[in-house]
C-alpha cells in the first residue's frame, strides 16, 4: 500500500535501527516541502504497511518525530505535521549551558553578539511607528520599577521586539532563546539600586539610535547596555559573596 500524502518518499528501509530509519525518512519528506504544517499524516496502520514494518516500529518512529517537534499527536485524531518551537531550542541550549558549566559572562558575550547585530539591522529597517512601540514598552518598564518580575518580562520583550524589527527570523529566534538563560542575570540586575532606571536610560539610547536610523550608533548603544548589565550582575555577585 502506497500512501498518497507522502508520494515522494522512499519506503525501502534497512532492518537495523528500524524505527530510526523510518523516522529519518519521514522527517526528510516533511522537511522537503512536499507537506504543509497542519496536514494530517496517514494512519499509523497505513504508514506501517507502506514501510513494511510493524505498528510497534511505526509507533516508535512517530514518537521520535514528536520529540523532534515535527508532528503533534492528538488523542483519537491521528498525527499532524507541525514545526519545532523556539521553546524546543531553549531547552537544548539550557541543558548545554548547565552541562558544560558555561558561565553568565560567556552567555552575555553571546548576547552582545546577537543583540548588537539586531540593533544594527533594525536601525536600517524600522519605521517611526515601530520606534514609538519601543518607546511605549520602555515607559512600561519605568512604571514597573519595584516589580522585579514585571520589569524583567518587559525588558526581555523589548530586546526580542528589536530582534523582530531586524527582519531576520533566525536572529529573532536566537535572541529569544538566549533571553531564557539570561533571566536570572536580568533579575540580578534589577536587584541593584537604580537597576530599573539604568535599563530605562540605556534603552532610550538604543531607541534614539534607531529613530536616527544609525546602525553604528545602535550597535554601540546595544553593547553599552549589555556591558553595564553585566557590570550590575558582577556587582550583585560581589555583594552576595560578602
TrEMBL record:
Keywords: DNA-binding, Transcription, Transcription regulation. GO terms for molecular function: DNA binding; DNA-binding transcription factor activity. The keyword Electron transport does not apply. Coiled coil: none annotated. It comes from the Bacteria. Pfam families: FCD (PF07729), GntR (PF00392). Gene3D superfamilies: GntR ligand-binding domain-like, Winged helix-like DNA-binding domain superfamily/Winged helix DNA-binding domain. Residues 16-84 form the HTH gntR-type domain. This is FCD domain protein. It comes from Anaerotruncus colihominis DSM 17241. The lineage of its organism: Bacteria, Bacillati, Bacillota, Clostridia, Eubacteriales.
Amino acid at each position: 500500500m502506497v500512501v498518497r500524502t507522502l508520494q515522494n518518499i522512499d519506503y525501502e528501509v534497512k532492518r537495523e535501527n528500524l524505527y530510526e530509519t523510518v523516522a529519518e525518512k519521514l522527517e526528510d519528506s516533511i522537511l522537503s516541502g512536499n507537506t504543509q504544517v497542519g496536514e494530517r499524516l496517514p494512519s499509523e496502520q497505513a504508514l506501517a504497511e507502506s514501510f513494511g514494518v510493524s505498528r510497534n516500529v511505526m509507533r516508535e518512529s512517530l514518537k521520535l518525530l514528536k520529540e523532534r517537534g515535527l508532528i503533534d499527536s492528538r488523542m483519537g485524531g491521528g498525527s499532524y505535521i507541525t514545526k519545532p518551537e523556539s521553546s524546543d531550542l531553549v531547552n537544548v541550549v539550557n541543558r548545554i549551558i548547565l552541562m558544560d558549566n558555561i558561565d553568565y559572562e560567556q552567555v552575555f558575550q553571546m548576547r552582545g553578539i546577537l543583540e548588537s547585530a539586531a540593533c544594527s539591522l533594525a536601525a536600517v529597517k524600522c519605521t517611526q511607528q515601530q520606534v514609538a512601540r519601543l518607546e511605549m514598552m520602555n515607559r512600561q518598564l519605568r512604571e514597573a520599577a519595584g516589580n522585579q518580575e514585571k520589569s524583567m518580562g518587559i525588558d526581555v520583550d523589548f530586546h526580542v521586539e528589536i530582534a523582530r524589527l531586524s527582519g531576520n527570523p533566525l536572529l529573532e529566534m536566537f535572541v529569544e532563546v538566549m533571553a531564557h538563560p539570561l533571566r536570572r542575570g536580568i533579575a540580578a540586575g534589577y536587584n541593584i539600586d537604580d537597576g530599573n532606571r539604568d535599563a530605562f536610560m540605556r534603552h532610550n539610547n538604543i531607541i534614539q539610535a534607531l529613530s536616527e536610523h544609525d546602525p553604528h550608533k545602535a550597535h554601540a548603544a546595544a553593547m553599552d547596555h549589555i556591558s553595564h548589565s553585566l557590570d550590575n550582575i558582577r556587582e550583585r555577585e560581589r555583594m552576595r559573596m560578602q
